TrEMBL record:
It comes from Eiseniibacteriota bacterium. This is Response regulator. It holds the Pfam family Response_reg. Residues 16-132 form the Response regulatory domain. Transmembrane segments: none annotated.
Amino acid sequence: MMMGGKPLRPAERPPRILVVDDDRRVLELLDLALSAHGFQVLTALDGEEALRQALDERPDLVVLDVRLPRKGGLDVCEALRRDPEDGAVPIILVSASAETETRIQGFARGADDYLGKPFSPKELIARVKRLLARSAEARESRRRAVQLERELNRAQDELRRAHHETRREQRMRELAFELGRELHGSLDIDQVAARFLLAAQARIGSGMVALLAPDGITGSLAPLAVRGDGFDRVSGIAVARSGEMMSLLSGLARPVLRRDLERFPELAAEIPALVAAGVALVAPLRGRRGLEGLLLADERVDGAEFEPGQLELTGGLCEIAAGAIHNARLACEQMERALGLCGGPAKGRRAPTLRAEAAAIADRAVRASGLPPRQRGLLAHA
């Protein structure tokens, strides 16, 4: 619509009034009166047409005669109040009946005002303006209520996220303290692996968990320990350090579902071994010096999906285990080196120096082993 040669913005659109009466002369009179005060007027001659226009055009107010053909005014009023999209449109009922019972029925059906015929167009326009003002205030209140509800929902979501983050940090601290102390309390790599798999199985809920570690010969990752099943189930799995899977897992540095790995065409040659073993989850043990191993797990015993919180805790557990396994491997290598120096032939002038060096290395390794005093003494003597 144009006004003064400029298009009106939606917010500046004149109020739209639907006038419903079976008398065309009344419609023409009210059309002229309302239009003269800047209102946009829609008209209908019966109840069915009134309902159709009300639902299609969405007027800002309805002036509705009680006695109408096809569908009475009271029925139209009640139907508009049941409209789920705009059941609060202001309605002025107009009737030639002055009976109190008719007024009561009109208000009971949802009318906002009642005007008896004959009436002055000036009085109708005054009531229209009053109801439109009240309707605008109600719409603004509803808009503010909706806005406040959205803000409240956002605040509650932020609070839930903050609570979840706090709980996550608390679980990670507990995990780091309890499992870190347990895993780092031993330098026996087999014992570390057993404790790690026990903790992993308890948190994942899988029937089988296995740890792959470098085999020391080919450099590939092969089964080191299994819990919940025999070695034969995972004996066919060997992950090459130079392979695509190791590169991908090292880069991700987080637990990955096998079905997600299957989406990568470059892993087509390495996936079948995981499928044959029933592996559902693969988690890298990534430490400061790279990948120390892989955790494999089958489906959860209860048949449920792995939850995000479980995967996050598993990732933290693998990070702690990577450090413990690295320390255990270093201690083992140091011990082997010390024993080799002690047992090997040492001739010439440097023999005493080499033996002293070997004894010092052996002493440090024994002290770091965490063994009881008697066993440390026996190992040092050897």
